[in-house]
Design goal:
With 147 residues, the chain is of the alpha/beta class. It is built from two helices and eight strands; from the N terminus they run βαββββαβββ. A hairpin with a 7-residue loop joins strand 6 and strand 7. Helix 1 runs antiparallel to helix 2. Pfam families: Glyoxalase. This is VOC family protein. It comes from Planomonospora corallina.
């Protein structure tokens, strides 16, 4: 048996705010949406393929210190796409970790930008090459593990 991630589902506190954020940062299109009170949700994707579902059924901020999700990572083709995403993230005023694009570990060419969505869920956009021109913030430890 083989497995592949089908889509990711996230609880959000404000569907409209999260929709705006994910559409601007990732370029997702809305594939489906419900405005029914108590059952608001949205299906987001690229080229008609479902990638992310947002469910308005939470309050407060994401509790990174509790067991569960650590972060979500999205790969893009090149470091220029990471830098474009960083510009959008900065423009939205999102929490940005490591002050921009950094390698995954010391000596690594792969790397990305690490940030939070409006509910504090930790996100990463990375490329397999082109990030090795800066020092890694965590030395030999994986950058994505410590933000």
């Amino acid at each position: 048996m083989t497995f592949r991630t089908g889509h990711i589902g996230l609880n959000v506190s404000d569907l409209d705010t999260s929709l705006d954020f994910y559409r601007k940062v990732f370029g997702f299109e809305v594939l489906g949406e419900s405005h029914e009170e108590g059952r608001r949700h949205a299906f987001l994707g690229l080229d008609g393929t479902l990638v992310l579902t947002l469910w308005q059924q939470s309050e407060g901020r994401f509790a990174a210190g509790l067991p569960g999700l650590h972060h979500l990572a999205f790969q893009v083709p090149d470091i220029e796409a990471v830098r474009r995403a960083e510009t959008v993230v900065r423009g939205l005023g999102a929490v940005l970790h490591h002050d921009g694009v950094v390698p995954h570990r010391e000596g690594s060419a792969s790397g990305g930008v690490f940030f939070e969505d409006p509910d504090g869920i930790r996100l990463e956009i990375y490329a397999p090459d082109g990030a090795g021109d800066r020092p890694a913030p965590s030395g030999e430890a994986p950058t994505c593990g410590f933000f």
